[in-house]
Design a protein that fits this description.
The complex is a heterodimer of chains A (about 110) and B (about 110). Chain A is mainly beta and about 110 residues long. Chain A has one domain: Immunoglobulin-like (Sandwich), CATH 2.60.40.10. Helix content of chain A is about 0%, strand content about 55%. Chain A contains no helices and eleven strands. In chain A, about 40% of the residues are buried. Chain B is mainly beta and about 110 residues long. Chain B has one domain: Immunoglobulins (Immunoglobulin-like, Sandwich). In chain B, about 0% of the residues lie in helices and about 55% in strands. Chain B has no helices and eleven strands. In chain B, the strands form two sheets. In chain B, strands 2, 4, 5, 9, 10 and 11 form a six-stranded mixed beta sheet that branches. In chain B, a hairpin with a 2-residue loop joins strand 6 and strand 7. The chains are: A mainly beta (about 110), B mainly beta (about 110). At the A-B interface, strand 5, strand 9 and strand 10 of A face strand 4, strand 5, strand 9 and strand 10 of B.
Chain lengths: ~110, ~110
């Protein structure tokens, strides 16, 4: 069966520090991969999606970047965190021809 | 502008009653609509999908309706239980290769024993 792993679960970082969040999917190949952010009182905001290795599309301009070095690995990064980067970050995947999204357990990021 | 509206206030309901959650949208022509459940500090979990040419979908105690004329979906939980307490998100899908999905803010449901 397919599983999605996302870590760390919580992270407290100072402003200006770098960020790296990792997500891996098991039990499937060539998944679509997504990074979402959920701020308090707001809906899930799609940040990045990827349909294949090295293929990254950004939905909103921001202080973050994403990479997909392997088929089932998706990484969210920042060189210098801002206070506004705080939030709940979720990785998700789906099969190329399916609508159902499978989410990871999320990372609660606090930038202080 | 495109907008998805869910009642962001909490919905409190007595155990055993039917809970009805609403999702309204404007300036979208969705190919499908999904409902997800999210528990505090966890990722959303898929519940149901209904397509634009479908009026109603059921799964156990869950029922979803989709009215593309009213631009509205209703999500029903019959015989509600305290374990149904969670935030429920609706999401619109436009179709296409990577399945771009836009989420509403969610409605928090509290089932009171």
């Amino acid at each position: 069966s397919q599983t999605i792993h996302q870590w760390p679960a919580t992270l407290v970082q100072p402003v200006g520090s770098p960020l790296s969040l990792e997500c891996t999917v098991e039990g499937t190949s060539n998944p679509n991969l997504y990074w979402y952010r959920q701020a308090a009182g707001r809906g899930l905001q799609l940040l990045f999606y990827s349909v294949g290795i090295g293929q990254i599309s950004s939905e909103v301009p921001q202080n973050l970047s994403a990479s997909r070095p392997q088929d089932r690995q998706f990484i969210l990064s920042s060189k210098k965190l801002l206070l506004s980067d705080s939030g709940f970050y979720l990785c998700a995947w789906n099969a190329g021809d399916r609508e159902k999204l499978f989410f990871g357990s999320g990372t609660q990021l606090s930038v202080l | 502008s495109q907008k998805i509206e869910q009642n962001s206030e909490a919905l409190n309901i007595q155990e055993g009653k039917t809970a009805t959650l609403t999702c309204n949208y404007t300036n979208y022509s969705p190919a499908y609509l999904q409902w997800y459940r999210q528990d505090p500090g966890r990722g959303p979990v898929f519940l149901l999908l209904i397509r634009e040419n479908e009026k109603e979908k059921r799964k156990e105690r869950l029922k979803v309706t989709f009215d593309t004329t009213l631009k509205q979906s209703l999500f029903h939980i019959t015989a509600s239980q305290p374990a149904d307490s969670a935030t429920y998100l609706c999401a619109l899908g436009l179709g296409g290769g990577y399945q771009k999905v836009t989420f509403g803010i969610g409605t928090k449901l509290q089932v009171i024993p």
